[in-house]
Structures are given as C-alpha cells and as structure tokens.
Amino acid sequence: MSSLRLVPGTPDAVLSALSGVLDGSGTPFAPVPSDPAAAERVRQAAAPDEPLEDGCAVVLTTSGSSGEPKGVLLSREALLASAVATHARLGGPGQWLLPMKPYFVGGLQILTRSVVAGQMPVMLGDSFTESAEEMTGPRRYTAMVPTQLARYLDTDLDALRSFDSIIIGGAATPAPLKARAAEAGVTAIPAYGMTETGSGCVYAGEPLDGTSIALDDGRVLIKGTTLFSGYRLRPELTADVLRDGWFRTQDRGEIVDGRLRVIGRIDDVVISGGVNVTLTTVQARLLEHPGVKDAVVLGVPDVEWGTRVVAFVVGEPGRDELRDFVAEALPRTWAPRQVVALDTLPMLASGKVDRQRLLETVR
User: Fold this and answer.
1) Which residues does the UniProt record annotate as the domain AMP-binding enzyme C-terminal (predicted)?
2) CA 225 to chain centre
3) C-alpha distances in angstroms, 71 versus 56, 60, 142?
4) SS3 of 263-290
5) CB contact burial 305-335 (16+ within 10 A = b; e otherwise)
C-alpha cells in the first residue's frame, strides 16, 4: 500500500498532481479546499496518515450535503476511462473551460479530459464571456451545474452558444431549463453520475461506452469502467454498495424508450399525514410555474403531520397560489404546507443546494 499526499485544491496544483498520477510518475493525492472547515473534512475522510488502498490515484471527498462525508477512491484507469468515453460521446477531444472547483469530481474530470486531449484548460475568471474568448481549441467544451446554466443564459448567451457541448451535472436539470437552453441554441447535455461513478456516466439518458445501467425494484444500478474502487477505510460500506461489480446508487429511476430517467432519491418519498408524497415530483411541478425561478422541496419533521412538505422558492408566487398550482396536476395532499420565499437558494461549493442549511431555517 502507498501513502497519500494532500495538495491544495487550486486548479494549477490539482492539474500538476493529476498529470503525475495519470502518466505514472506521480503519487496518489487528495485535493484540499482552502476553507478551513471543508479542509478538515477532507483530511478526516482521506486519512492521509493511514496506508492507502491499492490501485487508488485520487481520493475525493463527497460534499456531505445530506450525510457524512466519505473518501471516494478513484483509480487511474477509472479516471482515464471516463475522459475517453466522454470525448467519444461528444465527438472527439477538445479544449475545456473549468468553471467549477477541481476538488469536486466534475472539476477534476475537466482537468483529466484536458490532460488526455493534450489541451491546456482555460480557468474561469470574473467573466464567463471573456473566459470563453480565451479558448483556442478546435472543439470547445465546458461543464456546469444547472444554476450556472440558468445564470449564463441571462448574462452570457453568445458565449454559451460558442461551445460545441456543455455538460450539465451536479443536480437534476429542470425540464423548463432544458427547453430554454434548446430554444436559445445552446447545446446543453444533462449528465447523470456522481463521485463514485467518476463524474457523469449517463448522458441524456444513454450510458457512456463501457457503462451499463440496470434497475433493482426502481433503484438505479451502475456497472462499468469508470466506477470507484471503494470508500477510504470503509470496507463494510463499500461491500454494501458494490455488489457483483454493480454500484447500488441511492437514486430511483425508470427506463423510458431505452433511456434512463432519474425520478429522485430513494429517500425522496415521505409520509405526510398518512400520504406518500414524492418530493421531487412536487419540486418539478413548482418549477413549471412561470413565476418560479428556482425551487427545492424537502420534508421536515412535524408533530401533526409526521413530515411537513416545505417548498423553498425563488420567485413571486405566494403559498396559496403555489398550492393551487401543484393541486392542478398532483393530489391536493401533495401540495406544500409551507412555502419559504428566498432571494436565492444557498449553495455548496460543489454547486449543489445546501439542504442542511435550508432545513435549519424551518426546524
């Protein structure tokens, strides 16, 4: 077993360390963010002083948005397989713009693809448009979370159109946002994946080369060359989610016309007043309202209802209007009992919504 080193989670430092492990000259590493609290979580999950499991090139720490952070072991082979399969799906290698932190898997894989393509990535500066104008590669790619896409559609539309493909991941892409991007002439490709799958491994519902998907009573299972090797120093947890080569995700899905459609997380169904409510379905309905810019729906413990359905909404409509809007398409009992109006949704550095912070405001 080899040792693990910690490197600063800056683009330059991660790119240098990554180049070394990909060509075999470097040592395994874990990128560390500058925020002290986040850095401490990485140190605990990565455990740099403990012997490192064989075959690991990089240890990434999950965001911990809904649970305990874990160290995810990614091999050199998995990183390269993801990069090669991504380029094959997009039409060939190209130059990448990095608009996200490289200590998360989305940012790390942009750097991996850049190394594989032999193209120096462009780092996002203060202006997305100005950063896009720095790109010189024959094919131009980037990746971002839905919130970034929504923002840039308002402020940097021409720059978005200049990319051959834009991978959208980190969270589910709302249908209205996908439609808006398509109408604007932006090639935005929703990707499904996570740290354990080496970033996105299913693009627009279709698995990348080398990846297989299956369903087990609605649970999404993934198998393939991009999968992680296990969790750092957590053999029991690894054995629980990696079975016979299949990774058992926490997501529910269905196959529609040969494409995977992710419905939500296993725990997205709550019981409120004796009624099963699918939170992601309520959230999707709210996002169809023309006055709602963004929304997240969560279940909150409640003495009367068992679980209270709470909608956190960026937009103008009030509680009664939104309850009626939900009830037009879904059972009335699914309508949120509480609506919290926000100027913006709180975000983690990974680009995901900070659910714990939202829950703290209503408990």
Assistant:
1) 283-352
2) 19
3) 11, 6, 26
4) EEEHHHEEEECCEEEEHHHHHHHHHCCC
5) bebbbbbbbebebebeebbebbeeebeeebb
Going residue by residue through the chain (363 aa), what tens digit of pLDDT does each one get? Answer: 568 999 999 999 999 999 999 999 999 999 999 999 889 999 999 999 999 999 999 999 986 444 578 999 999 999 999 999 999 999 999 999 999 999 999 999 999 999 999 999 999 999 999 999 999 988 999 999 888 998 999 999 999 999 999 999 988 888 889 999 999 999 999 999 999 999 999 999 999 999 999 999 999 999 999 999 999 999 999 999 999 999 999 999 999 998 999 988 887 889 999 899 999 899 999 999 999 999 999 999 998 899 999 999 999 999 999 999 999 999 999 999 999 999 999 988 777 788 889 999 887
Residue ranges, CATH 3.30.300.30, the chain: 273-360
* Mutual angle of helices 76-90 and 105-117, in 10-degree steps: 70
Residue with tokens 């082979």: 77
pTM for the model = 0.84
Residues forming CATH 3.40.50.12780 domain(s) in the chain: 5-262
- CA angle 115/119/124 to nearest 5° reads 95
CA distances from 73 to 53, 118, 175, 220, 234 (A): 8, 25, 33, 21, 11
Give, as one character, the DSSP assignment of residue 53.
P
Q: How far apart are CA 148 and CA 68, in angstroms?
A: 26
Identify the architecture of domain 5-262 in CATH.
3-Layer(aba) Sandwich (3.40)
Is the domain spanning 273-360 CATH 3.40.50.300? The answer is no
Amino acid at 41: R
Residue (of 213, 182, 188, 211) closest to 198 by Cα position: 211
247: enclosing H helix or E strand: strand 246-256
What is the rounded distance in angstroms from the CA atom of residue 318 to the CA atom of residue 331?
Answer: 19
